[in-house]
Design a protein that fits this description.
813 residues, four-stranded antiparallel β-sheet, eight-stranded mixed β-sheet
Length: 813
């Protein structure tokens, strides 16, 4: 029996809606919580697919007897549960920062995990039940499923440009209802009965009612611990503007009663204060400010009282580059110092639009000034495409202090602060020019020594024999500034640094020839931590210092671009012992949340997928004493791990190329899924052959392509970053497509084999693959953070090799 085209279309629409829902949840949780929920979302989606496999395996005969009604019911239940489950999950008072010392937070996390699994369970039932109903046409069903998923992951990005994220839930409801209508009216003509007619006429009523409810009730309950909500507690503050795009939801906040004062790291000696300001938040966090400016530089003289002003006091600068221009504070600072040529790069066009157009008068038409050249793009992409050099390249405070201090960025890939990035920056610094980083001060220091270690490693990689002769660093009470010179630091520059610090009560941290008596005089810490770190990292014993340090301060690289990952397992017992005495700030809660999610994923997979499949083996048609099903278990389990390992490695690597996690997720996912769908369709030609070589062809191709890409990523990245936006996206798709095409073959080929020998095990295989996928989504991230992307990809190749050893035996099942 062959599935009708309308049914295939309905399956594709549901799959598209499910993937769109998955990507949407990543955006929604970035707003109401933080970015690191992305991998948990992928995992819980796959948990729904795994549980679906168990459910179908144990109820396959009953469900296939009423196949049309079962398919329609699951389509409608997906439409209903997508918004309802998100609304329920929002009501759970989960705070990731409390996860270790408040046990109930683990229960909250588990509740969110299971609630949001439900929509994916219903969506998976549609595909899995179709697999079993049309055993001889599995490749067609799988191709429709993957094609729909690819379209959905791309389509949701387009929707994010048009409407606020929560409103897209309404679109998903409508798409699920449309799929049910198509299937009801056109998909089962040979099987229509009164029940189907009743369902067909009722879907419109149900869908319309749910849409109205969703539209009325869906609001975002943003975490009270995010900085926007904290500011809104101040009397007289209110949100006056909101804008949305895939890069984030931008909120503009005005304070009518209490003046806003956003001046990070302002000296305690400062005698001037900021003019009127408007607070700007991205995803309810990362506060910056639009400052009222009338064109008179003296009105922003307070910016000369921050640590980031140091480069302007070392020598006269003419041509500078500001990376991450944001709302313009760094440009105002440069204007105060009469810089003639300012180049500014900002990734988010919404932020530029705020300053340049919507609040242009308030900001003094800053971005339209004759001395400012504004570029929309990503920092490394811009530098890769230009040959120009600058007297100063400046990168200041591109993350929120609160989230950074809590370790909530520990899983955030940042290609701005890697060894390769610093080498690229220094190639564009003029002789005797400066590269300047301003960071938040934390006690004990974490990202500051890690950034310093990364800078030293970059200088050594560029054959600088004495990196300490090129580095100076100062700190205030809230921020520190690290400067790298393209040349040797002079005595005059050291003299100017000392004068700058004395006038503002800033502390020198390091300069060539500094002594311990000169540090830690104004903003006094228990020990001169940063000075000690700088001296140790520049010494011959730097390796021992890095190993012994309480936190992970290994240099960040493009292979492991996690500047904010500081967690060390051996430090955990010591931190846990301090929890009762205000030691919570030492926790890297983002990393620990990932560990908690992995443990929950493993537990949920074992209890909800593996255990039921094992207990009811006889019901699944597995003969007692037979070991053949173990080979099938290994085969589909390895495929589940390997597919996600490669997919997530590519997502993380392509963040650098495509400039934003959401764009990388969308392009990589949609390309993998669309081309895997094509591979699944093509696999029918290979499945007809009984030769092992037919199966080995895609496996060998996957191995060769994966290894080639992994070893050549640095060259590929360098080439693509020089391209324009359209060329980068198109070439990224071209690179991923052959690999995706090959990766789409092994799964349907395996299902096709068992469909001829043990068709009752098809849902079982679907469940085992889902079980592995649940674990791999989070495990892949942990492996990448600990060992790097290359190790992750090579592990995937090994897993495909193990699967290939089991494939020929599937025919004996």
């Amino acid at each position: 029996m062959k599935p009708s085209f309308p049914l295939l279309a309905a399956v594709a629409i549901i799959s598209a809606s499910a993937l769109a829902y998955e990507v949407l949840l990543m955006r929604l949780f970035s707003i109401i919580q933080w970015h690191h929920f992305a991998y948990m979302i992928i995992s819980l989606a796959l948990l729904g697919y795994g549980i679906s496999g168990v459910f179908l395996a144990l109820n396959r005969d009953r469900l296939t007897q009423s196949f049309p009604s079962a398919i329609l019911a699951n389509m409608l239940l997906f439409s209903l549960s997508a918004p309802v489950c998100f609304l329920l999950a929002q009501q759970i008072p989960f705070n990731p920062a409390e996860i270790l010392w408040t046990p109930v937070q683990l229960l909250y996390l588990c509740s969110i995990y299971l609630i949001l699994t439900l929509p994916f369970f219903f969506a998976a039932n549609v595909t899995g039940l179709s697999f079993y109903q049309y055993k001889s046409q599995i490749s067609f069903i799988y191709a429709a499923d993957l094609f729909g998923a690819g379209v959905g992951s791309a389509g949701v990005i387009l929707l994010l440009f048009l409407v606020f994220p929560q409103k897209i839930l309404t679109v998903l409801v409508i798409s699920g209802v449309v799929a049910a209508l198509i299937a009801s009216n056109f998909g089962f003509r040979e099987q229509r009965d009164s029940a189907n007619q009743w369902l067909g006429s009722s879907v419109i009523i149900i869908g319309t009612a749910v849409v109205l409810v969703v539209t009325a009730l869906t609001t975002l309950n943003v975490s009270p611990y995010k900085s926007q909500n904290q500011l809104l507690h101040v009397p007289g503050t209110k949100i006056i503007d909101r804008y949305s795009s895939p890069l984030g939801v931008i909120s503009v906040v005005k304070s009518a009663d209490t003046p806003l004062r956003h001046a990070p790291g302002l000296s305690l000696n400062a005698t001037t204060e900021p003019p009127e300001q408007l607070a700007v938040f991205t995803d309810a966090d990362n506060m910056t400010a639009i400052t009222r400016y009338d064109g008179n530089p003296e009105t922003v003289s307070y910016l000369d009282q921050t640590t980031s002003a140091l480069p302007y006091h070392l020598k006269q600068l003419t041509d500078i580059l500001i990376l991450g221009a944001g709302t313009g504070s760094d440009i105002l600072q440069a204007n105060y110092h009469a810089i003639k040529h300012i180049n500014a790069v900002e990734l988010n066009p919404q932020i530029i639009d705020l300053v340049k157009d919507k609040y242009a008068d308030f900001a003094g038409y800053l971005y339209s000034s004759g001395n400012v050249n504004l570029h929309v793009g990503e920092a490394r992409g811009y530098l890769a495409a230009t040959k120009k050099n600058y007297d100063l390249i400046n990168i200041s405070l591109l993350d929120a202090f609160g989230a950074s201090a809590a370790g909530l960025y520990s899983m955030a890939e940042s290609y701005l602060y890697t060894e390769q990035a610093i080498q690229e920056y220094l190639r564009h610094v003029s002789p005797d020019g400066y590269l300047s980083f301003t960071r938040w001060v934390k006690i004990p220091p974490r990202d500051e020594p890690k950034l310093l270690a990364t800078v030293i490693s970059a200088l050594k990689a560029d054959n600088v024999r004495q990196p300490g002769q090129h580095i100076i660093m100062i700190r205030g009470w809230q921020t520190s500034t690290l400067i790298v010179k393209n040349g040797v630091i002079s005595a005059e520059e050291i003299s100017r640094l000392k004068r700058f610090c004395n006038e503002r009560s800033f502390d020198p941290v390091y300069y060539p020839g500094i002594s311990e008596q000169e540090v830690n005089q104004f903003n006094i810490q228990q020990q001169p931590y940063l000075y000690q770190a700088a001296v140790a990292l520049l010494s011959d014993d730097s390796r021992a210092f890095t190993d012994d340090y309480k936190f992970n301060i290994e240099p960040a690289t493009d292979e492991k671009p996690y500047l904010f990952h500081f967690f060390k397992w051996r430090t955990l017992p010591e931190i846990l012992s301090l929890l009762g005495s205000s030691g919570s700030f030492l926790l890297e809660s983002g990393y620990l949340l990932l560990i908690a999610a992995l443990l929950q994923a493993i537990l949920a997979s074992l209890l909800l997928i593996a255990l039921p499949l094992w207990l009811w083996k006889s019901k699944l048609g597995i003969k007692p004493g037979s070991g053949s099903h173990l080979r099938m278990l290994v085969y589909f389990f390895c495929l589940g791990l390997a597919f996600l390992f490669i997919e997530i490695a590519f997502i993380q690597k392509f963040i650098l190329i495509l400039h934003h996690p959401l764009y990388a997720i969308t392009v990589v996912l949609s390309t993998f899924l669309l081309t895997a769908g094509a591979g699944s369709y093509f696999s029918t030609k290979l499945s007809s052959s009984s030769e092992k070589s037919a199966f080995m062809l895609p496996i060998v191709s996957i191995a060769l392509l994966s290894i080639s890409y992994s070893l050549g990523f640095e060259s590929i990245t360098g080439f693509l970053l020089q391209m324009g936006s359209l060329s980068r996206y198109l070439l990224s798709i071209v690179l991923i497509a052959p690999l995706g095409f090959c990766m789409g073959m092994p799964f349907p080929m395996g299902l096709d084999k068992i469909s001829h020998t043990a068709p009752a095990l098809i849902p079982w295989a679907w469940g085992i693959n889902g079980c592995a996928s649940v674990i791999s989504a989070i495990l892949a991230t942990l492996i990448a953070m600990q060992f790097g992307f290359t190790v992750l990809i090579f592990l995937a190749v090994v897993l495909y090799g193990v699967a290939s050893l089991c494939f020929p035996k599937l025919a004996e099942t």
